[in-house]
């Protein structure tokens, strides 16, 4: 369990700033991106490895974009995944509308292809938090199994209190028409709020709330 806890802690601490790869050649970066993407998309690998690979892949995508490379999906073409941009970097953007529920604005999302939840966007939350009821629904539907769970982690709240939560892998998290795979999540208390935290938000290039359109807008580079 100590090794598992260390792995989960590493995933929670993984962020783009810690992954500056400027000393590496473009070929090395692309090779690392390809290896991470392959592991990220492999349904047979353990949950902790899949989550780590997806976060590593999305960090490398940002580094490649900064180095002037474009991903095939953003350019609408086939062929090599990454090539030098002929013009300004093209990235993929998404938009999803908020809804008012219980006096707050929430964002509809679909988990593991089926279960629907309504997220509050919370940039102060380290991870995506899923209420216990939604977790149990996914388990009943067979879209979440014990193989997706990665032990427990102790979190420090804003007021200094600590809280122990089960950590698991969401195979897919769909917002609007965009889906992110292998997202680190924690199980909240019964009837708690679903929180869209940093384990989703940090994998984007950027995101913003449009208070005129009442929507969230985001941009990402590479596979999403």
Bulk shape:
globular
CATH homologous superfamily label of the largest domain = Acid Proteases
Question: What structural category arises from helix and sheet content?
Answer: alpha+beta
Radius of gyration: 18 Å
Biggest β-sheet description: 10 strands, mixed
- In helices, the fraction of residues equals 25-40%
CATH topology of the largest domain: Cathepsin D, subunit A, domain 1
Number of helices: 6
Classify the beta-strand content into a percent band: 35-45%
How many separate domains make up the residues? 2
Question: Notable features of this structure?
Answer:
224 residues, alpha+beta, Cathepsin D, subunit A, domain 1, 2 domains, 10-stranded mixed β-sheet, two-stranded antiparallel ribbon, globular
What would you say this structure looks like, in words?
By secondary structure, the protein is an alpha+beta fold. The protein has two domains: 2-84, no CATH class; 92-220, Beta Barrel (Cathepsin D, subunit A, domain 1), CATH 2.40.70. The protein is built from six helices and twelve strands. Strands 3, 4, 5, 6, 7, 8, 9, 10, 11 and 12 form a ten-stranded mixed sheet that branches. Strand 8 and strand 9 (178-187) form a beta hairpin. It is globular and about 50 Å long. The relative contact order is 0.19.
């Amino acid at each position: 369990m100590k090794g598992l806890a260390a792995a989960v802690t590493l995933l929670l601490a993984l962020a783009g700033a810690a992954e500056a790869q400027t000393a590496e050649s473009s070929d090395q970066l692309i090779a690392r991106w390809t290896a991470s993407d392959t592991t990220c998309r492999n349904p047979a690998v353990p949950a902790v490895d899949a989550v780590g690979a997806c976060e590593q892949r999305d960090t490398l995508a940002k580094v490649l974009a900064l180095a002037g490379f474009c991903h095939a999906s953003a350019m609408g073409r086939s062929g090599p995944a990454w090539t030098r941009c002929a013009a300004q970097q093209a990235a993929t953007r998404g938009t999803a509308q908020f809804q008012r529920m219980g006096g707050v604005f929430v964002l509809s999302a679909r988990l593991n292809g089926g279960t629907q939840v309504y997220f509050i966007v919370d940039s102060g939350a380290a991870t995506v938090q899923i209420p216990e009821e939604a977790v149990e629904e996914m388990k009943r539907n067979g879209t979440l199994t014990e193989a997706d769970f990665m032990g427990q982690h102790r979190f420090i709240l804003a007021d200094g209190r600590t809280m122990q939560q089960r950590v698991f892998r969401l195979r897919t998290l769909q917002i609007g028409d965009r889906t992110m795979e292998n997202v680190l999540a924690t199980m909240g208390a019964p009837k708690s709020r679903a929180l869209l935290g940093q384990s989703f938000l940090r994998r984007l290039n950027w995101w913003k709330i449009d208070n005129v359109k009442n929507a969230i807008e985001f941009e990402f580079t590479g596979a999403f």
